[in-house]
Amino acid sequence: MAGAGFHHHADIEARMLTTDTTSDTFTRTVKVRFATESGGFREGDFKASFRRITKERLDEFLADEAGYTQSEVLDEVLTGVSGIGQKGEDGKIEELPPADQLKWVRNSIECCNAAFRDFFEAMRQDNGAEKTSKKRR
Q: What is the pLDDT of residue 136?
């Protein structure tokens, strides 16, 4: 008899983590803000695909003595982006080719800061980006 405090086997299975729960990559919606000439901000977002790393590698990135730069971390973990477009000659916004989107994001300080922050928040599930090395920021 299933009473209060007892879970059906199917409910437990649906919530249980298994060793195949994680894939090699994960995708996040990255929110980014761009300062405008009028003193305000323009906000937007893009999808970022990140490579999942080991706990040991995460600890290496966070170690003060290692001194990894934001670019070095993103070189290793940011595998692709989508949702970046530009206006065509007809005025319609068209999504850029994947390689061009990644290049644009990697050349944007705002996008790199946002992707870096989101990666560490996803991995640490807290605000881990603030705990990276102060030596080479």
A: 46
